[in-house]
Specification:
The protein has 95 residues and is an alpha+beta fold. The protein has one domain (2-94). Helices cover 34% and strands 37% of the residues. It has 4 helices and 6 strands, in the order ββββαααββα. It has a 6-stranded antiparallel sheet with strand order 1-2-3-4-6-5. The longest helix is centred in the middle third of the chain and has 13 residues, at 46-58. The radius of gyration is 14 Å and the shape is globular.
């Protein structure tokens, strides 16, 4: 994978063929992805990722307070939405 960094602590990972791309945010000494990004990373449907996250919280494998953060995002329709972002611990647990 090719790594491109910019000034905002965001790294974009691209596959060698240029088709796959995941934008990763770094904050509080970890990286953060939302469910859409994890679906892209693991090449699964978002619903599968969300189901795994619910199961992980349901079994108390990980706690929501330590693995989830809300961030405001501008959606395609121009509205601002609060999105759940998950840290590396959750990304590893889902993977």
């Amino acid at each position: 994978m090719k790594k491109q960094e910019n000034q905002n602590d965001i790294v974009i990972y691209k596959a060698k063929d240029g088709r796959g791309q995941v934008e990763v945010r770094f904050d509080r000494d970890t990286l953060w992805l939302d469910a859409h990004q994890m679906a892209q990373l693991f090449q699964r449907d978002r619903s599968v990722i969300v189901r795994h996250i619910r199961n992980i919280y349901g079994t108390k494998e990980l706690g929501k307070m330590s693995t989830c953060a809300k961030n405001a995002q501008v959606a395609a329709d121009g509205r601002i939405r609060q999105m759940d972002f998950y840290n590396l611990d959750m990304i590893i647990a889902v993977g």
